[in-house]
Structures are given as C-alpha cells and as structure tokens.
C-alpha cells in the first residue's frame, strides 16, 4: 500500500524489472492486501462505497471479483487460508475488534476469538490448523495462537513491550513478530510454542511487519 498519489492504494511490483503497477483506483482505503495461495487473486480491505471498511477479492488487473463482507462494521486485515477456501479477518461487529473466519464459497462467517478486548493481525499456520494473532490485554499486545475451531488458545509472549504482526515460517516451526520491548520496534523470532525468543534486527529506527520468503526456512 502506498500514499504516493494521495490516497492509500495497492500496488504490485515486478522485482526483476523494477516495474510497479497500481491495482486499486477506488476512493477511500485500499489496504492490507494478501495473495491467494494460487497467486491468482488478492484479498484486501476497501472502503470506497459507504465509508465502512469491507473485505473484497480483486484479480491482478485490479478488477473487483467479489465483495465478501457488507455490513455496518469495519472489516479489515484479511488473511487467506493455505487451502484457499477461507479468509480470516478482523471485525468490530461484536463491539470490539475480534477475529472471524469466513468460508468463501458459502459466505459463512463465524467468530473465532472471544477473550480480550482487541485481537488483530491474524496469520494462518502453513497447515491451516492454527492462527497466530496479536491480542491486547492490559493495554499491551502479545502474540497468541488458537486452533481454527476456537480451541487451544495459547499466549506465546509475556513482555512489557508490545508484541505484534506475527508471521509463520514456511515449515511452521517458527513465528516472526515485531516487538517494542527494547524501546524501538525490532523483529524477533521464536519457536511456535513461544520458546527460544531472539532478536534478529538491531539497527537504528523501527523494524516492523516481518514476512518470510517461501524459499527460506529459518533454523
């Protein structure tokens, strides 16, 4: 997402040729893109119609394929399941930001998280059996995992600084995340059970939003 034209729009960049293409031309928010597992489509948040943020699927020329949510609430942060059949997203339709899962074909939605007043940034495990997310308790965000049937909620981080933006390694063994425990935001890695935390960025400034290469496993 870039504000280079004054509006938050989604772009796609060819890393080999250095060319970029604007995918979204809609007024309002065009944010939080996530690729489909087959690389053919993108799910993202748009707010071009009524000002509310809703979840849409677009193809790679920017054409809208379908609108997945349409309600008064703000629906944001979509994340595609590994099998391509479901979307996890964040919505305040229950009064506070919580994580929901939608079956795309049936448009069937169910609430996944019930504990905590603010849960965000859902990330599917490679097997599709768990979701990592950032949950706020006592004004501090920590990383949690939960089974996709709603069972097995587990807190992974226990630090005074905020811990956000979880990202699974391709083999499912590790989770990378952003933490401000040292003052500035840095990238950390831990095992998927929360053990063996370690920082991997040390430079000046803030480092956020880690994302794994599909061809590189951390060991």
Structure commentary:
- By secondary structure, this protein is mainly beta.
- It has a single domain (32-199), classed as TolB, C-terminal domain (Neuraminidase).
- 0% of the residues lie in helices and 44% in strands.
- The protein has strands at residues 11-14, 19-22, 30-35, 41-46, 54-59, 64-67, 75-80, 86-91, 98-103, 108-111, 118-124, 130-137, 140-147, 154-155, 163-168, 174-179, 186-191, 198-199.
- Strands 3-4-5-6 form a four-stranded antiparallel sheet, with no helix packed on it. A four-stranded antiparallel sheet has the order 7-8-9-10, with no helix packed on it. It has a four-stranded antiparallel sheet with strand order 11-12-13-14, with no helix packed on it.
- A hairpin with a 6-residue loop joins strand 8 and strand 9.
- The model has no long low-confidence stretch (mean pLDDT 90).
Secondary-structure blueprint:
Blueprint: E1 11-14, E2 19-22, E3 30-35, E4 41-46, E5 54-59, E6 64-67, E7 75-80, E8 86-91, E9 98-103, E10 108-111, E11 118-124, E12 130-137, E13 140-147, E14 154-155, E15 163-168, E16 174-179, E17 186-191, E18 198-199
N→C terminal distance: 31 Å
- CATH domain class name: Mainly Beta
Oligomeric category: single chain
| pLDDT averaged residue by residue | 90
The low-pLDDT segments are none
């Amino acid at each position: 997402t870039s504000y280079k034209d004054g509006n938050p729009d989604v772009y796609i960049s060819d890393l080999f040729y250095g060319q970029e293409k604007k995918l979204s031309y809609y007024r309002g928010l065009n944010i939080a893109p996530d690729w489909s597992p087959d690389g053919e489509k993108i799910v993202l948040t748009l707010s071009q119609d009524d000002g509310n943020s809703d979840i849409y699927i677009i193809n790679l020329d920017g054409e809208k394929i379908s609108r997945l949510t349409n309600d008064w609430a703000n629906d944001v942060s979509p994340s595609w399941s590994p099998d391509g059949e479901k979307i996890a997203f964040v919505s305040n339709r229950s009064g506070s930001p919580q994580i929901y899962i939608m079956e795309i074909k049936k448009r069937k939605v169910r609430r996944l998280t019930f504990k905590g007043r603010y849960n965000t940034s859902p990330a599917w495990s490679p097997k599709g059996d768990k979701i990592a997310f950032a949950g706020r308790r006592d004004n501090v965000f920590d990383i949690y995992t939960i089974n996709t049937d709603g069972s097995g909620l587990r807190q992974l981080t226990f630090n005074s600084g905020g811990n956000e933006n979880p990202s699974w390694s391709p083999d499912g063994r590790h989770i990378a995340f952003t933490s401000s425990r040292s003052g500035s935001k840095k990238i950390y890695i831990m095992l998927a059970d929360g053990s063996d935390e370690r920082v991997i960025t040390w430079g000046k400034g803030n480092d956020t939003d880690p994302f794994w290469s599909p061809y590189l496993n951390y060991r």
